[in-house]
Amino acid sequence: MTEVGERPDEQKMCSVVSVEAVWYNIVNERDVMSTDVQNTLILFKPDAVQRGIVGEILTRFERVGLKIIATKMLTPDKQHYHNHYEGIGQMITRRGQTAFDVTLAMMVEGPVIAMVLRGVESVELVRKLVGTTEPKSALPGTIRGDFSHMSFGYADTKGKGIPNLIHASGDVDEATKEIAHWFTPEELYDYKVINEKFTR
Question: Is position 46 within any domain?
Answer without folding.
Answer: yes
